[in-house]
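Folding Task

Wanted — backbone structure
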Amino acid sequence: MTHPIPLIDMTPWYDGSTADKSAVVDAVRGTCEGIGFFMISGHRVDPGLIQRMYDTSRAFFDLPEEEKATCPPIGEVPGGLMHFAYGMEKLAATMGVETPPDRKEALDYGPLYHGSDWPVRPAGLQRAWHDYYDALDRLCFELRAILALAAGLAPDHFEHCFENHLSSVRVLDYPEQEGPQLPGQLRAGAHTDYGFLTVLRSEDRPGGLEVMNLDDQWIAPPAIAGSYIVNLGDSLMRWTDDMWRSTPHRVVNPPEGAAGSRRQAIAFFHNPGRDALIDTLPTFRHDDVAPKYPPITYGEYSIERQQRAHPEHISAVV
């Protein structure tokens, strides 16, 4: 049986014929109209860079708490690092659901966000993050073109919306769990992403990602070595008048007593620029039906969404 979250090989997009490229676009279109999640291989991101990103981030999370505390979630440094300590977020709140704090710790970086000075330890952290951001930025340039074609538009349709784009990298540490969770408490509560798309490097460990399928059932995508998981964000769903799907997802707790359940995920949130106007795309308009949403800039929309998750810890945009 075919898994509902398909694995799409991007190699033909880079190296194939026009027909090969069209097949990639068709495959992406099908999942955008369905579950809103897909996996990609052949993405051309250097595995060595992914490992360097993983290792330096893990080394930061392993630092003493007092040392990590010198890097708070808000700061005045353009392009600085943001650290969200364990239990600081409630992602389910972005969907209006009140839960206990999520059982995770996080690091964030975006070139156009303010944060704290990059720490001296671990060595190589800042370089790894900058290199990784650049690599995922290049990958998302290709994904933007694929999504534009899938929407029946020119491949460069979204480019003006991504001038000075507000993308960011986030690494999440889900530690081994000690003691029982509170009622309704997860590693990350159910939520949708509010940007354009997310590119996730997942890990095959107990207590991982779950995605809500079209029957409102939670399913777990396979963690395939060398692949990424891609999901659409609310901004893109809004651009398509909800005809493409931004899918709820969550990170569940590992089974009680499961060994080796510490887990680390690396997410690249690809977001439009602050002034990008999110208005229904021409190919998703109908003469006899008004769009569901009024136009809104991404800056206005993103701030409103972020404040639900952590209202006291919003980093200013440069």
Q: What stands out?
A: DSSP finds seven helices and 16 strands in the chain. The chain has a mean pLDDT of 92. The longest helix spans residues 125-150. The domain at 7-309 is CATH 2.60.120.330 (Jelly Rolls).
